[in-house]
UniProtKB/TrEMBL annotation:
<feature type="domain" description="Aldehyde dehydrogenase">
    <location>
        <begin position="43"/>
        <end position="507"/>
    </location>
</feature>
<dbReference type="InterPro" id="IPR016162">
    <property type="entry name" value="Ald_DH_N"/>
</dbReference>
<dbReference type="GO" id="GO:0006210">
    <property type="term" value="P:thymine catabolic process"/>
</dbReference>
<keyword id="KW-0520">NAD</keyword>
<dbReference type="InterPro" id="IPR010061">
    <property type="entry name" value="MeMal-semiAld_DH"/>
</dbReference>
<dbReference type="Pfam" id="PF00171">
    <property type="entry name" value="Aldedh"/>
</dbReference>
<dbReference type="InterPro" id="IPR016161">
    <property type="entry name" value="Ald_DH/histidinol_DH"/>
</dbReference>
<dbReference type="GO" id="GO:0004491">
    <property type="term" value="F:methylmalonate-semialdehyde dehydrogenase (acylating, NAD) activity"/>
</dbReference>
<dbReference type="GO" id="GO:0005739">
    <property type="term" value="C:mitochondrion"/>
</dbReference>
<dbReference type="InterPro" id="IPR015590">
    <property type="entry name" value="Aldehyde_DH_dom"/>
</dbReference>
<comment type="similarity">
    <text>Belongs to the aldehyde dehydrogenase family.</text>
</comment>
<protein>
    <recommendedName>
        <fullName>methylmalonate-semialdehyde dehydrogenase (CoA acylating)</fullName>
        <ecNumber>1.2.1.27</ecNumber>
    </recommendedName>
</protein>
<keyword id="KW-0560">Oxidoreductase</keyword>
<dbReference type="InterPro" id="IPR016160">
    <property type="entry name" value="Ald_DH_CS_CYS"/>
</dbReference>
<dbReference type="GO" id="GO:0006574">
    <property type="term" value="P:L-valine catabolic process"/>
</dbReference>
<dbReference type="InterPro" id="IPR016163">
    <property type="entry name" value="Ald_DH_C"/>
</dbReference>
């Protein structure tokens, strides 16, 4: 059985009695929040009779109720965003960027409160939640530089007395359909760039973690952003299908599972929308025998068990090459020291999983591994956390002797579960990874430049870490998952993100001074 620290309930209640500056946080302190849509610059309570309950993952206390909006409510969000577009687009890019400077300041002022709310809603630890807020903030910082990001191209004398230049123009109404696991950061991947480029926006947060979207609306409202530029519609499948079909909406940014992403990509592109889908993952971490042992083991633990494994970039499959497999015993011993508790409790390494359903699914996969012949070295299925006995906790779990046909390898577990595979050579490791349908990220730990160079060159995966446990690029680069982990033509944020939210318009001009002469002969234009 795993060792646990006792919970510090005192600190938890202390946090709840603090004064928060954002209304949604203040409201959530008093009890369950009725989540509202944000349409045309106002929070509007839905008239629906279909509601989804959201529970605190550590206590099962009801924290919010999410509406499945009525069709008329969805329609009014689309119309508001459409109506605001000409006015918003006509502002200078510097004026739009100024709202982002304000947003950056507001996020910084409220970052601790946002992080605490994330812990309560999602279950992640406070340091993890702070990291999420910071990663979101970085994209807003990038959006502040939009004036120089929106440069087009020019060429003088492209033909005789003709010039050509191109602009990056906004498309109209953009939208996002978001996952539960980074409820603040994922909307921040898209909203700042889309709106600063001149689009208006409709956000559909995850129905499992809806409060962070609400926070973003409050912050944008405080920044003074004009009504209609940013809207939120909540709900699940019906709202998603509305977004795929609404003629006003020109772009969809989706982050989530393959099941939903495949559907959204097909339906959205059929309706001639630009769609980008970041989807599921099964990431591998290759440990070479020449790697720094201590750094490798720490990185394995952080990558697999951080955020309770609910990260699309967690390297949940550890591939030991050759003699590095002997380090597994030490990995198991260190894993036993991981502290599982409610996310606010200081010293916690691993919080609860976000929903009971996800917990039950992960436990089922662990059971299947045993039945299919793997060796479960550590099983966190029966863990109980003192003071939070109702929480969705899964202790860190390690499954060895995994083969590629097993359910625990075939499926994305999305929990604190490590699967271990042993191979003899780097070539075998590369082949294993390239045969996996997903290609979000991967890492290698080695001191050999030739091994790392070979790996980065031959690996068929879009994001590669070399001695880096979670290879997520910062905001100025793009999040470049490949193959089964991505659908679309432009990746999220960075230069690709800006291209996604703009369309090139190319102007070809004939110099006007020729028109001053009346001596112009008629000629059919000739292609040259
Ligand atoms: P999810 O697919 O269940 O939900 C994501 C969004 O899709 C939600 O807003 C939800 O309302 C909607 N949705 C869900 N099922 C739908 C359906 N049948 N039809 C229409 N819409 C539907 O994903 P999740 O569980 O919230 O997030 C976890 C998944 O997201 C994992 O697979 C993870 O790997 C992936 N993820 C990927 C990235 C990435 O950048 N590649 C980042 C974060 C999460």
């Amino acid at each position: 059985m795993l060792s646990l620290k006792t919970s510090l309930k005192g600190r938890y209640s202390q946090l709840l009695s603090r004064n928060f500056t954002l209304p949604i946080i203040e409201e959530s302190k008093k009890g369950a929040v009725t989540i509202k849509n944000y349409i045309d610059g106002k929070f509007v309570e839905s008239k629906t009779n279909r509601w989804i309950n959201v529970y605190n993952p550590a206590t099962q206390k009801l924290i919010s109720r999410v509406p499945e909006p009525l069709p008329s409510e969805l329609r009014s969000a689309a119309e508001s965003a459409q109506k605001a577009f000409p006015m918003w687009r006509s502002l200078s890019v510097s004026q739009r960027a100024r709202y982002m400077f304000k947003l950056v300041r507001l996020i910084n002022e409220n970052k601790e409160d946002i992080a605490e709310l994330l812990v309560r809603e999602h279950g992640k630890t406070l340091p993890d939640a702070r990291g999420e807020v910071f990663r979101g903030l970085e994209v807003a910082e990038l959006a502040c530089s939009m004036p120089s990001q929106l440069f087009g191209q020019t060429l003088e004398n492209v033909s005789s007395e003709m010039d050509t230049y191109s602009y990056k123009q906004p498309l109209g109404v953009s939208s996002a359909i978001m996952p539960f696991n980074f409820p603040f950061m994922c909307p921040m991947w898209v909203v700042p760039l889309a709106i600063t480029a001149g689009n208006t926006f409709i956000l559909k947060p995850s129905e499992r973690c809806p409060l962070s979207g609400q926070i973003l609306a409050e912050l944008l409202e405080q920044s003074g952003i004009p009504k209609g530029v940013f809207n939120i519609v909540h709900g699940s499948v019906d709202t998603v299908n509305f977004i795929c079909d609404a003629p006003e909406i020109k772009t969809i940014s989706f982050v989530g599972s393959n099941q939903a992403g495949d559907h959204i990509y097909a339906r959205g592109t059929k309706n001639n929308k630009k769609v980008q889908c970041n989807m599921g993952a099964k990431n591998h971490m290759v440990i070479m025998p020449d790697a720094n042992k201590k750094r490798s083991i720490n990185s394995i633990l952080g990558s697999v068990f951080g955020a309770a494994g609910q990260r699309c970039m967690a390297n949940s499959v550890v591939v030991f090459v050759g003699d590095s497999y002997e380090w597994l015993d030490e990995v198991v011993e260190k894993t036993k020291k991981i502290v599982v508790n409610e996310g606010h409790v200081p010293g916690t390494d691993l919080g609860p999983m976000t929903t009971k359903k996800a917990l039950d699914r992960a436990k089922r996969i662990i059971k299947s591994a045993r039945n299919e012949g793997a060796k479960v070295l550590l099983d966190g299925s029966d863990i109980k956390v003192k003071g939070f006995e109702e929480g969705n906790f899964l202790g860190p779990t390690i499954i060895d002797k995994v083969t590629t046909n097993m359910t625990c390898y075939q499926e994305e577990i999305f929990g604190p579960v490590m699967t271990v595979i042993h191979v003899e050579t780097l070539d075998e490791a590369i082949k294993l990874i390239n045969n996996n349908m997903y290609a979000n990220g991967t890492s290698i730990f080695t001191r050999s430049n030739s091994a790392s160079r070979k790996f980065q060159y031959e690996i068929d995966v879009g994001q590669v870490g070399i001695n880096v446990p979670i290879p997520v690029p910062l905001a100025m680069f793009s999040f470049s998952g490949w193959r089964g982990s991505f659908k679309g033509d432009h990746h999220f944020y960075g230069q690709n993100g800006i291209e996604f939210f703009t369309e090139l318009k190319t102007i070809i001009t004939k110099l006007a001074w020729q028109d001053e002469s009346d001596n112009i002969d008629f000629n059919f234009p000739q292609l040259k």
